Every structure is written in structure tokens, then in C-alpha cells.
Amino acid sequence: MATPLSADRFLSALKHEGLGVVEHGRWRTHNRNTHGDWGPVNGVVIHHTGPYSSEAEMVELCRVGYQDLPGPLCHGVIDRSGTVHLVGYGRTNHAGLGDRDVLLAVIAEKKSLPRDNEADTDGNRHFYGFECINTGSQPWPAAQLDAMARAAAAVCRAHGWNEHSVIGHKEWQPGKPDPGGIDMDDFRARVARHLKSGGTPGKPKPTPRPKPAPRPVPKPKPSPKPAPKYAAYPGKDFFHNGRSSPVIEAMAKRLIAEGCDSYDTRPGPVWNEAHRRSYAAWQIRRGYHGADADGIPGPATWTALRIPRTAGATEPTPNQSAQETDPMPQALADIAERTIATYLQTLLGLMAASHTTDLVSLSAWQAAAVAAMPAALSALKSTLGTVIGRSGTASWLPLRRDPATPSS
Question: Count of CB atoms within 10 A of residue 172's CB?
Fold first, then answer.
């Protein structure tokens, strides 16, 4: 008689015999101890499982049991490759009621067992149990048979028992056929050979672990698209006199860099005739002629010009409303200014020639003329604006558009 091994000691004994062991769930505390005693222990019972659909399902069945027979149904399941699956520890539902005379023979480690003709003794209390995966009629793989003998020897060695403490279920309970196809005297001889080896079978098998269920891989978030390097084409309607935008000034810099410079002064952000002439030169450079080179940017030539995006500027969008900075086109302002300047210079010349300097000196007339020039320019702008009927918009000068095909 002996006190049961601790779960850790039981596991260590199996590994010491060179067995591969897989631990399932909380096997150390999974048992039927609340339904009966566990111990004293006296031996090991070997079983076969019977028909099975898969080895993994059979291991799980032995762990959880079924409605009429709750699990665990053994301490370890030995699969056909020789791996031991630990599914419970303590009292387990494997041996059931058996013959008391057989138990006494096991305790005495007798070489021969009496016939099992009674079921009067609780075997779950007194025996460790190993279920071995086999239908009962299949051939036994050599690796599995060796593991079965090693598992039995491991328990016997830990308790100081010999091979006669190992029996088959068919030797314990009347009517049981397992383990089928195995002569138990031959099997006990296998156990004896392992016990004589001193428990040093060579390099132990690595202990496999149940493969965890694969974790769902989160779908990577799409990387944000990098900001475009070049300014987007804003549409043909964007380009009319008076339009102000940083992208127009950036366009002018690219036109100058490409040698298409029709500017008299440094170009600014307001669209004017100088911008149109310079862009027409770019269209001609790109192979466009006639109406296709009217100076109004089209998508093809705009893309080819590679105008950098302006940092901090709002990207223009097609068909956005005009944002004028001056109600009169720059060209008209230039004409008005030149006209007034010419008029005043002529007036001063006539006054000097006729010596009309009685009231004030010539220098006083010149100062007055210069001071009056902005007011005269404003009046001329207002008058011309009324004449051409602009009504405060920048659409007084009709501009041609790109041809129907988006070519330039």
C-alpha cells in the first residue's frame, strides 16, 4: 500500500522514463475526489479506448467524459505515436468495480493472478490508469507499446513496485476485453526490462505542448497617403484676370525656370496678361498651337510644368468662385497710369514754354501734379469701369478657354 504521488512527482516520473508528455488544462486538480477515496494506491491498470474518430477527440473525451460517465476517465492517454497526454490526477473513472482477489494478488505482487469473477472492489481508489488509443482490434505501433510499458514502469519505479503491480483492465473486471491484442504477461516483461534499465533510457523525448489556437491577426490599417508633391490642376475657370492665389505665383516661378518669361516685372499671385502670355509660351514649348496655346492652363501642360505645392496654402479647387483683389484688371490700370502721366507731363511742358508762372512757381505746379495723380487715376478707373459695364467683376475681358479635349 502507498500514498499517491503528488501530481508534480507523477509528471517527473514519466519524464524520467524518457516519455513525451502533453499537459491538458488543469489536469493536476481535475479529478473525482469528491465522489470517493483516492488511495492507498496499489498498482497500474492498462486500457484501450475503443473506436475513435480522431486521436485529439479521444484525448478530449477522456478528459471531460460523457453524460453517463463524467471525466476524467484516466490519468493519462497514450496516443499512437507514444506521447502521454495528462488529463486528470487523483480519483478518475477508469477501473470501476473489480475482483478483490485480484487486488490482493497485486498488493502481494504475485506472478500469477486469480480469475476475475467478481466486481466487488473500488478500483478507482487503488489504481493509476492509462487509456491507450486503439479500437481494440488495430495493430499496436511499436512506439505506442514502448510508451505504455515506460509509463507503467515510471509509476512502479516511483513507488518501489515491480512489474507485477501492472494489470490489464481485462484482468480486473469481469467481461472487459482491454487492452485488446496484448498478452499481459509479455507486457509485464516489457515493464520489467525498463525497471532493470535503472530509468536511464537515454535522451528523453522533448515534451510537446498543445498548439494554441491561432490568434486572429488584426488587419493592418492602411498607411496615410503622402501629400501630393505638386499642385493639383484647379480647372480652367480658375484662370481669369483678378484671380489671386499662391499657386499662380508658384506657376510663374516654374514658367521662368523653364524659360517662358513674358513678365515685365516680378510676377505676383494675381492672374494677369503677363501670366497668360508666359503660359502660352509654355504651351507652344509643349507642342500646342493656335487656339490650343491661348495661355489658359490645361491639365496636360499643368501636370508637365510640375508646380510645387505651396506650403500653408489652401489647394485651389476647380470651379471655385473668384477672389479678386482689384476690381480693375492690371492691364487697364497700366494704360490709365501711362495716360495720366503723359497728360500731366504735356501740361507742365506747355506751362513752362508759355512762362505761365505768375501765380506759382513751376516747381509748385509739378508738386501739385504729382499729388493729384492718384486721384486722377482712381477717377479714370471708375469711369472706364462704368463704360465697359464691369459691375465690380473681373470678367470684363473675355478670355478663351482650352479646346474641348483636355490637351493643353
Answer: 26
Residue 340 is placed in which grid cell?
Answer: 495720366
Task: Tell me the sheet residues that pair with 98.
Answer: 121
Angle of helix 273-285 versus helix 330-353 axis, rounded to 10: 130
Q: What pLDDT, on a 0 to 100 scale, did the predictor assign at position 214?
A: 74
Residue 222 pLDDT: 76
Residues of the chain with pLDDT under 50: 202-204, 312, 314, 318-331, 356-360, 386-407
All CATH 1.10.101 domain ranges of the chain, comma separated, are: 228-325
Q: What is the DSSP annotation of 284-302?
A: HHTT--GGGGSSS--HHHH
DSSP string, 360-406: S-HHHHHHHHHHHHHHHHHHHHHHHHHHHT-TT-S-SS------SS-
Report how far residue 166's alpha carbon sits from residue 197's, in angstroms, rounded to the nearest whole number. Answer: 17
CATH of 7-196, one of 3.40.80.10, 3.40.50.300, 3.40.50.720, 3.20.20.30: 3.40.80.10
List C-alpha distances in Å: 17 to 58, 72, 176: 24, 24, 29
pLDDT at res. 403: 39
How many angstroms separate the CA atoms of 324 and 320, rounded?
Answer: 12
What is the model's pLDDT at position 387?
A: 44
Q: How far is CA 98 from CA 2, 11, 171, 293, in A?
A: 19, 27, 9, 107
d(CA 326, CA 304): 30
Q: For residues 16 and 200, what is the distance between their CA atoms, to the nearest angstrom?
A: 7
Q: Which amino acid is at 213?
A: A
What pLDDT, on the 0 to 100 scale, is given for residue 371? 61
pLDDT on residue 12:
97
Phi, psi of 15 (to 5 degrees): -65, -35
d(CA 397, CA 263): 20
User: What residue ranges of the chain are covered by domains with CATH 3.40.80.10?
Assistant: 7-196
Classify domain 228-325 at the CATH topology level: Muramoyl-pentapeptide Carboxypeptidase; domain 1 (1.10.101)
**Which strand (E) or helix (H) includes residue 93?**
none
Q: What is the pLDDT of residues 333-372, one digit of tens each?
A: 555 556 666 666 666 666 665 554 444 455 555 565 556 6
Residue 60 phi, psi (nearest 5) = -65, -40
